[in-house]
Design goal:
The chain has about 350 residues and is mostly helical. Helix 4 runs parallel beside helix 6.
Length: about 350
């Protein structure tokens, strides 16, 4: 007669759990108690703390990274290490990921709740075929950790087909996906809606080099958010024609927060007296950091013009568009000895 073995789980007392967090990971008692309250008691049956630490150390995490991981995801302490956690982490290691990369993926993603063979591996295999190399997959996954919690073989192909039917090449689609991986996870109906908006509302021709960028922007905005942002432009006197020109030139202006749109328009239009038509046709002005770039460079340019130290009277748009090194070399360093306060202003604001 075969002997039956029954495994009994005993839930470790809270004090033992807290003691482990304090002694092994360096948490304060207060922090450890707080973490312990976030762990579902019945899940402590899989409590294998030392196996967990051993696994994390072997994949290149130091103690501070492990603390970060446990602080943000206390339930990790209850994952069955060999049967659940280890195989999933090994799948990421196969991409060359370790240490801080794994911390980011685990804390920002939701893939540990997904099945290894039903979601994680099929999605990784699909990405390898789609992108062509482990390095490319690693870059995309690091950029968007939530990819591995989605059923990519089901979600992505319909969107690729839709975009190809609109005339976009795979190279163009891959470029957008690498830049914004969530782009291809949307419902195809959202992409169709974005296409319709670009053509009907913003009069952007489908052959425009900005059309795919416009789709990328609009699929991330629901109708209410979009209308609120357009209302701000209109409240500053922008016509629908001005808004169309801006979107046609740089649709990413619509990704800017409502507060930044309002503050930027207030500075350019109310303080500097710029017309909406000029800003629409020089849309990149609206995307730069207002405090650390636009206002700083405007102040430096104003000082240089007052002292008649720049020839040809460059406009603010020209100065703002300069790269950091070009601006420093052309408008700051040449006057460092003659006007040390100018250099001081620049360095103080940039720090």
């Amino acid at each position: 007669m075969a002997q039956k073995f029954i495994r009994f789980y005993s839930t470790p007392p809270a004090s033992i759990f807290v003691e482990f967090l304090v002694k092994s990971l360096g948490f304060s008692t207060k922090e450890a108690i707080s973490i312990s309250t976030k762990v579902t008691p019945w899940r402590l049956r899989n409590y294998e703390p030392h196996l967990l630490l051993d696994l994390f150390e072997k994949v290149g995490m130091d103690k501070s990274q492990i603390k970060t991981l446990i602080s943000s995801s206390p339930q990790l302490l209850c994952h069955h290490v060999h049967g659940n956690l280890k195989p999933k982490i090994e799948a990421l290691q196969d991409l060359g990921l370790s240490g801080s990369d794994l911390v980011t993926l685990i804390t920002k993603g939701d893939f540990l709740k997904r099945g290894l063979h039903t979601i994680i591996k099929p999605s990784l295999d699909y990405l390898k075929v789609l992108l062509g190399s482990h390095d490319s997959v690693a870059r995309v996954v690091k950029r968007e950790p939530r990819l591995l919690s989605k059923n990519l073989p089901k979600l992505i192909p319909p969107n690729i087909s839709l975009l190809q039917n609109l005339g976009f090449s795979r190279a163009d689609i891959d470029t957008v996906f690498n830049r914004r991986p969530r782009f291809l996870l949307n419902n195809p109906k959202w992409l169709e809606r974005a296409v319709e908006q670009l053509e009907k509302n913003f009069h952007m021709p489908r052959g425009s080099r900005m059309f795919l960028h416009g789709i990328e922007v609009l699929v991330s905005l629901d109708e209410l958010k979009l209308e609120r942002k357009l209302y701000i432009f209109r409240s500053f006197g922008w016509s629908d024609s001005d808004i169309c020109v801006m979107v046609q030139r740089l649709p990413y202006c619509l990704n800017t927060s409502e507060a930044k749109i309002r503050n930027t328009l207030k500075f350019f239009m109310m303080e500097l007296g710029y017309e909406s038509s000029y800003l629409a046709s020089h849309a990149s002005l609206l995307k730069f950091s207002l405090e650390k770039r636009v206002m700083l460079r405007n102040e430096i340019l104003k000082i240089l013009k007052e002292k008649q130290l720049v020839k040809g009277g460059p406009c603010l748009y020209t100065v703002v568009k300069c790269s950091e090194s070009q601006f420093l070399e052309k408008y700051v360093l040449p006057f460092k000895e003659k006007m040390p306060e100018l250099y001081g202003l620049y360095m103080k604001t940039r720090s």
